[in-house]
Amino acid sequence: MNLPLFPLNTVLFPGCILDLQIFEARYLDMIGRCMKQGGGFGVVCILDGEEVGIAPAGYALVGCEALITDFKTQDNGLLGIRVQGARRFNVVSTELQRDQLILAEVEWLDEEPEQPLQDEDDDLVALLKALAEHPMVEALNMGTEATGQQSLANQLAYLLPFAELDKIDLLQLDDPQQRLDAIQALLDELQGELFA
């Protein structure tokens, strides 16, 4: 499966919402093709390099498919799009096109079936509800209601202020319980740093 890549300074997770402002010609063309074909593009996190200009030197080889859910011309005249994370993927190989767009051959990662929330997830569910009240999260209109362990893990991993490398590690985990355990460990680490 070939997917155009959009390297960004963020990690997108399935079911999560991301607003983007598009101004580079290669990405405007890519968005136009995606909208015509009803397809998506791949969001991969930049490990070193810049978001604009020449393709970044390094990016994560795991990413998330982004499907366009809305678009509008912004006050500054640039194209604004809203995407929703869909399937996770691994990058198998890449090819840099003439317009500097990166086209990747990807393999889709298997998603575990959604598991019901457990009693021990209550603290994390409460944390997600608290995050949902933040104006920036509210503006995403993500519907931050966890329907199970998978959606709870994806939303927390996306919204919490973890380092990008930690988020990449979380995105690679297939098992929602493992992802929730890893999120709890990162939260404990953050709390330790705050009270050290």
From TrEMBL:
Highest taxon, organism lineage: Bacteria
Short name of one Pfam family: LON_substr_bdg
Lon N-terminal domain boundaries: 1-191
SMART domains: LON
Name of this protein: Lon N-terminal domain-containing protein
Species this protein is from: Pseudomonas fluorescens
